[in-house]
Amino acid sequence: MAAGDASHNRSTRPGTEGRTDHWDAHPLALTDAGRVRLATTTAARTGVHAGMPVAQARAKCAALTLLPWDAARITREIARASAAFLAASPQVVPVRAHPGVWWVGAGGFDRIGGERQLATTLLTLARVWHPQARVAVADACVTAQAATWSTRTLQGPLHVAPGGDRDYLSRVPITLLAMDEDLREALVALGLRTVGAFATLDPLEVERRWGPDGLAAWRLARGDDPRRATLARSDDPRAVTHELATASPTMEPVLFLVRASLDHLVRALAADGLAAAAVTLTLRLEDGRRVTREARPARPMARVVPLFERCRALLDTWTVESPIAGVEIRITDTTPSSAEQGDLLAPTWRDPAAADAALARLRNTLGAGAVVRPTLRDSHAPERAGGWEEVEEAAHATPTDVLGARGTSGGVAVLAARLLESPEPITITTDKRGTPLQMFWRARRLALTRVHGPERLSGEWWHAASFAREYWRCESEELGQDLLLYRDAGGWRLHGWYD
User: Fold this and answer.
1) Which residues contact 219 (CB under 8 A, 6 or more apart)?
2) Predicted confidence band of residue 12 (pLDDT cuts 50, 70, 90)
3) What is the DSSP string of 137-204?
4) Between 71-85 and 114-126, two packed helices, what is the crossing angle to 10 degrees?
């Protein structure tokens, strides 16, 4: 792995003497389009390297196991590792041409143990993925990356003294300097086997022979590396920007980075006594376009999980027309934090932020308008006396809102009315006084007992759907429910039941 800023760079990479049960201890290679894309250290010792044809790689190592290059899975794992390293530094860059290598910014840590403490933290995090991960610290990314190949990094982070990059690089083999393979072969053919020997060449002669690419490599050989760890910027305390190692057609890698970024941003908000009222997500697409959406919680909060659930609900329904190359997470609106606290001894207390996060997940899974609650309406018609309204946020519940055991509230049984979407026609047998005795419904004959009625309801004459009905409430022992019937000008109908 490598980390870099204007002062020092840190590099971390998998080690070469791993445990025997680790994948790096086996001759493995990832292949793509008939060529080796990446090889383990064990395979590299036999001469297998990236860019080599598969047939040639098999000739070098008979025991070589070939696996297909899975770009989506590798992008996801790089994003997971990047998110983990954000816990140590807000500047983390996966090196595009070298999967498994990161540059991490090492400036501004004087108050919390300095770069040595940061390097130790990074090594601990990196060894979750590889037992012999390596960390090196230097002024320039090129130096830090080259230093990770030193066997000294097996014992702990290697620190190149400030200002000592050029001197360190002078002893490094030319194979560790990033350059075109043809240029490397030409330099080796000329007897230039170290970076220092290459750095002594005249720059005009280098440019004349090998052009701009040769001159860029020569500058790297002298420790002149303009690259910096800017995957996540800390210049704006309310925003974090990420570049993906490879463009992703799915949101999965983005979710890892959003979660880690919110950890960083919310900690800063809490330290300032603020809560986030709005989070803006901006996706940079591979075709150069930028698209932005806002996640605004029902109430400001300074907690990571509810904010992340809001962002995840937004991302899960976000369709993009091009692979995602980068993402920016920005807190665009803040308010002073609320002083409300939960009471562990109060069983009726609920966390509104957690409830809001759960509602956001339900909306995302079931669709807009899926989270509703019943509400009363001003009408005497049963089907119009109530309705559903969408729930935007969780309300504060009181003890009187909570139903007791077995569907009771305050010791009184509560029956729920189940109305049919459309009342169904039925045939009723009545006595001489018009009281229902039997009901024929859906090819069934049901005896009616404990008949109560009639209750005559009418109204809303000013609407086209005015009504005038005679309601009866009857018990059906066969169904075990109270049925709600009515008769109007169109005949008898079953409106619903109570349970």
Assistant:
1) 225
2) low
3) EESSHHHHHHHTTSGGGGTS-EEPPTT-HHHHHTTSBGGGS---HHHHHHHHHTT--BHHHHHTS-HH
4) 140
Model pLDDT, residue 487: 93
Tokens of 496: 């619903």
Is the pTM value of this prediction over 0.85?
no
Q: Is the peptide bond before 454 cis (omega within 30 degrees of 0)?
A: yes
Q: What is the pLDDT of residues 433-455, one digit of tens each?
A: 889 999 999 989 999 999 998 99
pLDDT value, residue 399: 41
Closest CA to 241 of 325, 326, 308, 328: 328
Contact yes or no for 459/381 (Cβ under 8 A) = yes
- Look at residues 65, 64, 23 and name the one whose alpha carbon lies nearest to residue 46: 64
CA 457 to chain centre: 55
pLDDT recorded at residue 72? 84
DSSP assignment letter at 404: B
Whether the CB-CB separation of 87 and 46 falls below 8 Å is answered with no
Round to whole Å and give the CA distance between 223 and 116.
Answer: 21
Helix, strand, coil abundance in the chain, percent, nearest 5: 30, 30, 40
Distance of CA 419 to CAs 254, 442, 455, 480, Å?
A: 45, 16, 17, 16
Distance CA 499, CA 481 (A): 6
Alpha helices in 296-379, H assignment, sequence order: 304-316, 352-366
For 123-147, what is each residue's pLDDT tens digit?
888 888 888 899 999 988 899 989 9
Q: Which of 482, 427, 426 is CA-nearest to residue 451? A: 482
Q: Cβ-count burial of 84 within 10 angstroms (0-12 exposed, 13-18 middle, 19+ buried)? A: middle
Q: What is the rounded CA–CA span in Å between residue 387 and residue 370? A: 14
CA nearest to 281, candidates 299, 307, 301: 307
CA 291: distance to chain centroid? 17
Contacts of 438 (CB under 8 A, 6+ apart): 428, 429, 445, 446, 447, 448
Q: Could you give all domains of the chain from N- to C-terminal order, each with its CATH number?
A: 2-27+64-221 (1.10.150.20), 417-498 (no CATH)
324-336 vs 274-285, strand pairing mode: antiparallel
Cβ pair 91, 7 in contact under 8 A: no
